[in-house]
């Protein structure tokens, strides 16, 4: 699932919305750094245009309970320091990192969500409706 967070301001109130592209990610090849335009966040069906070519229609879904978004960062590796006066200790005072240790991650909360914006491919009927709404 590919996600982006959009922060919306309403006077002094912030609202975070999760952009859920999971229903279209298997059908489409969306480049990682493709430019996009997200419009109509204050409507029932926001529109997401990716790379000027792909047009997606969104629909809000209220979250059940508390929905938290986390970020994942690389953690520091565990370092073993050899200590002691042992004559056999060739690594006295040296730090050793275990090469077999899996890299650790740190997870930090980013935001709390109230809504998820699920997207689907726009059909010809969707495009005609959007065009008609824009000309009004």
UniProtKB/TrEMBL annotation:
Superkingdom to which the source organism belongs: Eukaryota
Pfam families, per the entry: TFIIIC_sub6 (PF10419)
Record-given protein name: Transcription factor TFIIIC triple barrel domain-containing protein
Natural source organism: Quercus rubra
GO cellular component, one term: transcription factor TFIIIC complex
Domain Transcription factor TFIIIC triple barrel span(s) in chain numbering: 13-122
InterPro entries: GTF3C6-like, TFIIIC_triple_barrel
Gene Ontology biological-process entries: transcription by RNA polymerase III
